[in-house]
Each structure stands twice: as structure tokens, then as C-alpha cells.
Amino acid sequence: MDSDSRGSGRRRARGIRRVPLEPGALKDLKDAIYRLYVDAGRPTLDLIAADVAGLADELDLPGAPGRDTVNRIIGDARLPPGREDTIATAVVLAHVAGRRDTAAIAADIGALWTRAAGTPADSRFGRPVRQCDPLALEVHPAIQMDRPLPPLPPYVERRHDHELAKVVNEASSGKSRIAMLVGASSTGKTRACWEAIQRLPAQWRVWHPFDPTRPDAADQHLAQVPGHTVVWFNEAQHYLLTPDPRLGERVAARLRTLLRDPARGPVLILGTIWPYYWDALTGPPPASDLDLHAQARELLIGADITVPDVWAPAEVRRLVAASDERLRDAVENAEAGRITQYLAGVPELMQRYRNAPPSARAVLTAAIDARRLGHPLSLPHELLARAAPSYLADVEWNQLADDWWQEALAYTAKPCHGIAGPLSHIRPRPTEHGAKPLTGYRLADYLQQRGAAERASIFPPAGFWDAVATSVSDPVTLRTIGGHAERRGRYRRAAALYRLAIQGGDDEARWTLAALRERAGDQSGAAALRQSGTTTVDDDAGELSASAELRERAGDLPGAIDLYQQAADRGDAQSWDRLVSLLEQAADPDGALNAALRAADQGRISALRVLAVTRDRLGDSAGSEQVARLAADRGDATIFGALGATRERLGDIISARVLYQRGADHGDAYALLSLAELLKRIGLSDDAERLQQAIDSGTPSALMSLAALREQMGDRSAAHQLYQRAADRGSIAALLSLAALHERDGDLDAAEKRYQQAIEQGDVTGLWSLAGLRHQSGDLLGATDMYRRAADHGITAALISLAEIAEEQGDRVQATNWALLATDHGDRDGLPMLIRLRRSAGDQAAAAHMERFGLEDDGSPAANIE
Question: pLDDT digits over 265-286, tens only?
């Protein structure tokens, strides 16, 4: 068949629609290709791909695009991925259309592609990948030797690099993706991201939002981010865990929207974050609190790639043969495989802190305390200058020179082997409007982390708290530091900072101070504070919810609905769920849906789930699925799986299969597993096998999710196998889950073996669990040793257990010491333990004072909170 007849035989095909574009080089290219496509009779993608393959030699095609690439070249608003593939597609279309000037067409299309590719992108959104500077993207330079060397040594890939490469490759192929590298300070997270983006094609750009502040820049510009952009969120907590949670939630919501919008893709969101901040953003909210991080949690779950603190032996062996002397030096001298930290100059940093003269050490210690108790990154000059003297003994203070402050800052600012000094001055950029920029100091990350761990059990001196009260003006910071004082039982310090926060306009501090006053017995003072507040969260909400429950039990649905509505309006999150359910039961579907949508807008997506389940139980399957889609659009990927399970129990296999498939399409591992089992039961073994292979090849986190679901379903054998597979792939969490499973089964020997394996791989929570096993078996000596080791690694609950063991052995003094240490660590069980020990000793007055007023700085019972 000649080309003319082949073309005319395809003119009845429906074809691809023209892409609407703004005038410019890309539109010219797309229009030229589309005209060739129309002239060729709008052939199908499969036919074009077949022609490309069949005519490659005859037409001397420069590229070999497949079906998906051809679709992007003709029908996608983005720049075609490659010049050669674009030319090949155009030449084939011209040939099919009967054109004889294919050489000229190839030259024209190639020129148009080059012009479109060279069109400058919006400079607001970063620089091309190849033009970026890793140091400008906050990659730490390595230590320097005696001779000049490049800022970064050669890169040696580790296991997490392979996981990250998969994400970057998917972005290169046109899919928007997110990856968040989770690891402690100076473990190589940012360097890994830098190396990963070198895989991206040349048209990709890197955007690092930080001006005027990181979260503000992201909030203002994320809606305009174009395709082929890497959104660089180094230290992602600054973007998502903001003092005002609403700002962080807006940023998270904008990121979720960006990832889901195919017209704006592909984009790649790369971030780094410490485990502490990851847990704060992704952990379940307390049952009694509003969910402050719902958007961030939905964004981040499943996006984590763990970067270990310690290099594996096989990874270290690859460094031995490296040509860079810094890498060899790190292998020889790094402590316990902490290669990356050594390269970043950490040993020198810590030596500088520990060997500092008294004045410099006092400044650094004050900075460490300020950061560990919640002060933001930039530490004010006045705070450090006022606080530092209280960290000096009298003899040290009296021996200081008059210029001690300048000497201390000079010492702390001096770089350490190519990295910033322990405390560096933040040089602000000039503001747009000429206002004087704020100045401050930044504590080195690793020193902050290590220093916080070393000082975790020390309550700062009185001068620190006085300095905070006189030098810090931000009300949220005052409330945050006050909260740390309250958790450590120092109610008087907390109350003073809460009062200052209230004066600065922070209403949340008003309610927190009211609760302190109420505990102290000042009911009128507490009531006055609450009456003067403007917060939307009403402390009557709990009473309204309780009254609504009584009405509901009595059968008064209208009265219950009215009270649940009032409680929800006053901030009681749980009342939304009951309100939605009762409205649906009262045959008010519109009211139920409106209430569920209002709740979802306030971050309470569970109300939509409640409505979907309620409708399903009432037999409204169509209405249930409508609400499920709304819930899924807002991030509840598991709703379809839950509905599918219900349908399957009722024998509606067809509906169950459809719902499981929808859940799997939304990324729900439970739905995917359920679908595979359902297909197996109804005889579709081949389809089930393909799904099972997808499940088996899943990531450790996916296997963990499936294992937990299996365990919930009562299939402990399958759960054990899935946990084991995840453990075999390097998941320490899977080892801990296996240990817990053995423990619940009564196999304590197997549980201890698993906990030991987790400990050997560096997970300190295994120490706590193993101590509990030994305590349970009556081995108090072994339990004490393990609890001490766990406490040394920051597990404060171990201190309470040590206090309990000391109390069991009749050593009330040692029990009190352990309980006070737990309190100073910030463990909320510490003060109640101290109170109980006082009562058991017969000192009822001291116990009562502790309960009402907390502790003085030295740990003795306080007399009041004023």
C-alpha cells in the first residue's frame, strides 16, 4: 500500500486534539507537527509508532520514539523530550501524508525544536540543572587538606541513592514525583539530592525558594511553578513545620495540588528533613487535639527515603580504593562509620566546643539551650549576650576581659576545616523597602543536635529564662519555650513566658495560661483569661459534645444534631463525625454532605469517610461512592478499600472488585492486596499473580503496610512473612515489628533475638523494648542496664522505668533522682512520678505544692506560679 492510500484510509480516526498554547517558539513547533499529523490523516499512536519502526532505515530516521513519546510530541503542552525523536515523528508523518520534502521538514522541525528548547524560562523558578552550584543549594563542603582540593570529594553511591534514582528517573519520564530524604544532621542527604538531579535532562531547572522566607516564598509562588522544575526543599521543616501551622499546611496543600496537576508536570519535589521533624509532621495527632498537619501528612507519607547515620561495611570498602585523600582519611578516622559527618568537619566542630574558653563555651551552651527549647534558627544577639553570663562560674566571670563578648564571637565564628564555625553570624540581605534587616547567629546543625542530646537532662540556669523574657519578642517563640518549661514542671517560668506571649497577641498562650491557673487553684483568674480570649476553640465544646451524646442516647436526634453542630463550630473535631452520621440517618443527605465538606475544609477528612460508610450501610451505594471520590480527592486513599471490604462481606463481588481497583489506583496497599486475593478466589489466577508480583516487589515501607494490615486481619503467618521480607531488605522497623509479634505470641526468646538484631543495626528503641522483656521476666539487673543504655540514647520513658525499679527495691532517694531527671528531660510522666513518690513518703504538703505549682529551677516544690 502506498503512502497516499495509507493516509486516506486513516482519516476516520478520532485522533489527538490540538494543544492550546500561548504564542511563542513552543507553539510554532507544536503547530507545525500538528499540521503534519492532520495531513497524514490523524493516524493512531500505535500506527505512527509502527511506521517509525518500519521506516527507520528507509527514511534514515535520527530517533526511534515509542507510542508514549509520540503522544507527548503531538498532543502534550510540554516541550518534546528529545530533538531526534521529534524530527523522526515529523518525518514519518510527512511521509505518510505523501510529502516528498522530508529533508527540508526535518531541518525545519529541528530548528523549531532548538528554538523552543532555548526559550528562557521564568527566572523566578531557579536555574538550569547544569548551571547550579551545589554549595548554593546548601550542600556542605567537605573538610580541606593541606593542598587545594575541590569543595566536594568524589561521590560514592549508597543504598538510598538507588531508591532516589528511581524517583528521579520517573520524573525524567514525565511523571511528577516527590522524595523526602530523612536522616540526622550531616549524613549526606543534600549531597544525595544534588547527585540525583544530575540525571535529569538539560531543560530541567532547580528552584530553591527562600526569599523573603522559605515558607513565604513557597506559599507565594508554588501556584506558578512550571513543568520540568525541581522544587528544592532542603530542611523541609522550615517549609512545613511553621510556627503558624496554617502557613505550613498551605504550602503542603499547594505541593499536593502541583503533584496532581498533569498540565503543570512533570515536577520533582526533593527535600531533606531530620527524623524528629518527620515524626512531628507524619505521626498521628493526639486524639484530643486538632490535626495541625493533615496536609503535610498526606503529602509526605510514602515519600520517605531513609539516609542512615552510619555507612555500611560494604559502602566503606568502596571508599578505601578512592583516589581522594579526604575519603581515605574519613575511612581511617571516622567514628563508627560516620563518614559523612567526618567529611563535614564535625570532629573539629565538636572539639572546638569542648575545648572552648569559658566565655565562648558559655555563648555556645546558651545557644544550644535556646535551640533545643524551641527558639527558631536565627538567635538574637541580645538573647545570647544576656544569657551567656549565667553559664559561667563566679571565678570564670570575674576573670573575663572587658572585651570577652567579642573574643567569644571571634572564636565561635572561625570556620572548622572548610565548614562554618560553631556559631556563625547570619548576614542578612538588604530588604526591598529599605527597612533595617534583622541580625542573628546560627548554631551549627550537628552541634545543635549533639549538644541538645548531651544537655537533654539539664534545666537551664535562671539567667537563661530571664534573658528569654527580656530579649525575645515573638509571641509564638515565647509560647513555645514556655511550653518546654511547663513540660519540665517549671510552671512559674512557663506562666511568665505565656503572659508575655499574650501581650504579644498570642491567644493560644491565653488558654494555656488559663489551664495553669486553674491547676494552681486560681479559678477566677483562669475564667478571666478565657473570657478575654478571642480564640475559636471554646472550652465549652467538650461539654456540648457530651450533652449531644446524651441526647443521642435518649433518641433525641434533632437535639443531638444541634448540639454536635455547636460543638463542631467551637472546634471539637470529633463532633463533625457524629454530626455527619446523624444527619444522614435523619434523611438529610444534603445537610450531611455539606457538613462533611465543611469538616474536610478544616482538615477533618474523616467526616467524609464516616458519611461514605454510613451511606453504604444504609444501602445507598451510589451515594457512598460519590462521597468516597470526594474523600480520595482530599487525600483519603484508603476509603475505597474499606468500602470494598464491606461489599465483599455482603457478597457483592463485582462492586468489591471495582472499589479495590480504585483504591489500588490511589496507592492503597490494602486495596491492592485485597484485589489480588479476590481475583484469586474467583478464579482469575493470572491477574492475581501479576498483582502479587507487584506486591512482592514493593518497597520495605509498602511491605510493612501490608504486613500490618495482615496482622489486623488476624493472618499472623502472612504478617510474619511480609515483615521478614521487609527486614531482609534492610528495614529495621520490620525487625522491631517482628519482635513485637513474637512478644505478643509469647515467644520471648525469639523477640529478644529480633530486638538484639535491631540494636546491632543502630536502632536504640530496641534497647527500650529489650529492657521491658527483661523487666517482665524478673531480671531487674539486666533490665536496669538496658534501661540505662536506652536513657543514654534519649529514651526518657526509660528513666521512669528506672525510677519504678528503684522504688520496687525500696530506694526512694534514687527513684526521686530518676524521676527528676525524667522531668528535666521533658517527660510528662516525670512530675506525676515525683508527686507520687512524695505522697508515698508521707510528705503530703510538698506533693500538693508540686501538683498545683510545679517545681522551682532546682527541682524543689514551688510555692506559687507568680
Answer: 899 999 999 998 998 898 877 6
